[in-house]
Amino acid sequence: MLKYNFSAGPCVLPQEVFKKAADAVLDFNDLSILEISHRSKDFVQVMEQAQSLAFEHLGLQDKGYKALFLGGGASMQFLMCAYNLLENKAAYLNTGTWSAKAIKEAKMFGEVIEVASSKDSNYNHIPKSYSVPSDVDYFHFQTNNTIFGTQLQETPSVEVPIVCDMSSDIFSRQRDFDKYDLIYAGAQKNMGPAGATLVVVKEEILGKVSRSIPSMLDYKVHISKDSMFNTPPVFPIYVSMLTMQWLKDNGGISWIEELNNKKAGLIYNEIDRNPLFEGFVTDKADRSKMNATFVLKDEAHKDAFDQLWKDAGINGLNGHRSVGGYRASMYNALSVEAVETLVSVMQELERKG
Ligand SMILES: *Cc1c(COP(=O)(O)O)cnc(C)c1O
């Protein structure tokens, strides 16, 4: 039996996407998707479809944005966005490990103003009171902190361009996407296999820095070649396209957001109700609907709990080493049934406790 996969990433994808992807490996218009040319008509169509689905889900068609599928992961974007956009200074919100990594890279290109940080409390909340200077080149933040389980609910209102890492909650909920000037997301959290990163960028913010940019790191070069400057990650892009198509066929972001709210409601309800557990995030308003982090109040229950969830067919529930405890990652393709199973295991532990 297939396991309920609560892994933080790479992670669960829809079964029907796996099936279509497997078929395409064997036969994609009489060749394997793994052997077709990225310049072939068939793949150009895949790329166009992937770009158009991304725009459609984000509501960004005809608004001056370009969509790219690049290699290098979201981590590459930490330096690439700074390389292309940071002339003097940039503002960063430090809400977790990924923010800190993005800040480290940006510092190589200019001054970084950390407007706020929750590092001193091990990132257990999202800082609320901060201001973003109006003379920075851009403001960078993460919408969802995969490791700590916090999520920004509202888009900060600022006067400067917004550059945002949405790796772990892209296509999971509605946001005012048109308030963002550059959105990036590694595929392996909510979209596809590792190896492709979606970048959606408003063209007008590019071309303003004075440094010269190596071709492979230059958004304008990738745009001019329609994301085919070099061989793109063909298979991850194909699977990402299938996942976006799956999302569209089922009703789009509004459909999945309701399911994601339901799943998050189930797990947080149990964390709050069950006397053996407590949530990691201190401000409930900051709780992530993608990654729920929680701990056992008494470590003496650890072995029993670990045995129970493993026996129930659950995979990938261990928390990140910097938080400990447990993390239930509930990306788009994770079923409500999977979360119900986890909740019943938590209740069983209480009964046996
Ligand atoms: C996983 C993750 C990353 C890193 O992604 P890579 O593709 O491994 O480079 C960056 N940001 C966030 C929010 C993530 O969840």
Automatic annotation (TrEMBL):
The modification N6-(pyridoxal phosphate)lysine is found at K189. The gene is serC. Pathway: Cofactor biosynthesis; pyridoxine 5'-phosphate biosynthesis; pyridoxine 5'-phosphate from D-erythrose 4-phosphate: step 3/5; Amino-acid biosynthesis; L-serine biosynthesis; L-serine from 3-phospho-D-glycerate: step 2/3. It comes from the Bacteria. L-glutamate binds at R39. This is Phosphoserine aminotransferase. GO terms for cellular component: cytoplasm. It catalyses: 4-(phosphooxy)-L-threonine + 2-oxoglutarate = (R)-3-hydroxy-2-oxo-4-phosphooxybutanoate + L-glutamate; O-phospho-L-serine + 2-oxoglutarate = 3-phosphooxypyruvate + L-glutamate. It comes from Nonlabens spongiae. Gene3D superfamilies: Aspartate Aminotransferase, domain 1, Type I PLP-dependent aspartate aminotransferase-like (Major domain). Belongs to the class-V pyridoxal-phosphate-dependent aminotransferase family. SerC subfamily. It is found in: Cytoplasm. GO terms for biological process: L-serine biosynthetic process; pyridoxine biosynthetic process.
